[in-house]
Amino acid sequence: MPFEVEIKVRLHESIDEMKAKLTVVGAKWEVKLEHVDDYYLMPEGFRNFAETDEALRIRAVKQEGEDEKADITYKGKKLRGDTKTREEIIVKLSSAEKMGGILEHLGFTNAYTIHKWREIFSHEYNGETIEITVDQIEHLPDPYMELELYAATEEEINAKQGLLFEFLKELGYRRKDSERLSYLELVMMQLGVKI
């Protein structure tokens, strides 16, 4: 299974300033999207995702002038240190709403919905194509940026992480700026809510 190798940082500048910086280093703007992410919990008595550090998410993707797209994603436990590296399995859906209905009929609970406005860039860097997202998340006062690569095996993870941290440094951020909490966890902390 593929591993999502991701670094997330809280921006100490505006979204427009970061977009300008990305353009200067040669990153290519791709698209602006709205994500509506519904996070689900298993029925009581089964696995507790808060304890196992896993996630089950249904995402509706909205783009101006396009039909809504959707997927369901399983995210495994975070594997290492100062990144959000984890196993990730994504399946495309024809309807986020219908999949949510199936899960709820099976006893899953929609724990929380995260609204995110995202601009996506790509950047060719040392033989890899880094996906860069600049994000504004409902309920979080500051914007964030994510850098992402995929590793086919666990053996590839360290090299991919090193490459991402190297590029992050070019953008003026340090390894210690990396945020391991998910957007769901950050929003829950901001609102003082426990799932």
Write a concise synopsis of the structure shown.
The protein is 24% helix and 41% strand. It has an 8-stranded antiparallel barrel with strand order 1-5-4-3-2-6-7-8, surrounded by 4 helices.
Description:
This protein has one domain: Hypothetical Protein Pfu-838710-001, CATH 2.40.320.10. The protein is built from five helices and eight strands, in the order βαβαβββαβββαα. It has an eight-stranded antiparallel barrel, surrounded by four helices. The longest helix has 14 residues. The protein is globular. It starts with a strand and ends with a helix.
Write a concise keyword list for the protein shown above.
195 residues; alpha+beta; Hypothetical Protein Pfu-838710-001; 8-stranded antiparallel β-barrel; 8 strands; 24% helix
Topology, pairings included?
Layout: E1 3-10, H1 15-24, E2 28-41, H2 49-52, E3 55-62, E4 69-75, E5 86-93, H3 96-105, E6 109-125, E7 128-137, E8 144-151, H4 157-170, H5 183-191
Antiparallel strand pairs: 1-5, 1-8, 2-3, 2-6, 3-4, 4-5, 6-7, 7-8
How confident is the prediction overall: mean pLDDT? 94
Helix count from the secondary structure assignment: 5
Order of helices and strands: EHEHEEEHEEEHH
- Evaluate the radius of gyration: 17 Å
Shape: globular
Helix content: 10-25%
